[in-house]
Amino acid sequence: MKTSSLISLICSLTINGFNTFHQPAAAAPLPKSWHVAEALSPAEAANEDDKLVAVQVNGKYGYQDAAGRMKIAPRFDNVYEFFDGLAAVSIAGKWGFITRCGKAVIPLHFDNAVSFNNGLAAVQIEDKWGFIDKQGTMVIEPDFDAAESFSQGLAKVKVGDKWGFIDKQGEIAIKPIYDEVDSFHNDMAWIRIDKKVGYIDQTGKFLQ
Predict the structure, then answer these.
(1) Domain extent for 137
(2) In angstroms, how far is the first alpha carbon of the chain from the final one?
(3) What average pLDDT does the segment 54-58 reach?
């Protein structure tokens, strides 16, 4: 069997509600106005991050394309949109990551997760957060009380009740001294310390 045919078969099975990581109970039928389309081809899948949109049907989430065709059957309790080719999804309180075919490439065994960005994703194990790569390997140990996705090479993390930033090696880039922070955009991040608010650069320098 050719590789492309095998991929289409796997995607087609997933769309119709079957997957090796989860065998759902009989799902309620989709609205008649929704068409379950053919699986994404490898060429289509290469540029689909901004085309597959999360939708809710009968209390479960799936994904449809820009034309409104269901591409991944709604069987998840919670989902994020696709980033870096993968989407974080949850079933029964456990999180993992699926491809645009709906295949679970990182099993659903985390207590929480956020989207991939810059090749890494923040995941929660019990009460601590770390970061995994796209193979599901823990590359930054779960030592943080909260964490969010990388942006411009830095990720916001919480240590105790203070926020700071780490780099992709897991090293502290900006010390956790802030009460609130936003992720970096346009080389700066919004921060708050007590009643003082403003912006810092990627070295932690306060911008006037």
Answers:
(1) 111-208
(2) 62
(3) 96
Instruction: Work out how many domains the chain is built from and give that number.
Output: 1
CB 158 within 8 A of CB 206: no
Residue 72 lies in a domain: no
- Evaluate whether 2 touches 89 at the Cβ level (below 8 Å): no
- Give the closest residue to 21 by CA, choosing from 85, 84, 92: 92
Residue 119 lies in a domain: yes
Token digits of residue 10: 């796997």
Strand partners, 132: 121, 138
Q: Is the pTM here over 0.90, yes or no? A: no
**Would you say residue 147 lies in a domain?**
yes
Lateral strand order in the sheet of 196-200: 180-181, 189-193, 196-200, 206-207
Tell me which DSSP letter residue 127 carries: T
Residue 184: strand pairing partners: none
Q: pLDDT of 141-195, one tens digit each?
A: 999 999 999 999 999 999 999 999 999 999 999 999 999 999 999 999 999 999 9
Q: What is the pLDDT of residues 6-54, one digit of tens each?
A: 444 445 444 444 333 333 333 333 333 333 333 444 444 545 445 899 9
Cβ proximity of 16 and 70 under 8 Å: no
Q: Is the CB of residue 46 less than 8 Å from the CB of residue 52?
A: no
Q: Which residue has the tokens 């090293």?
A: 171
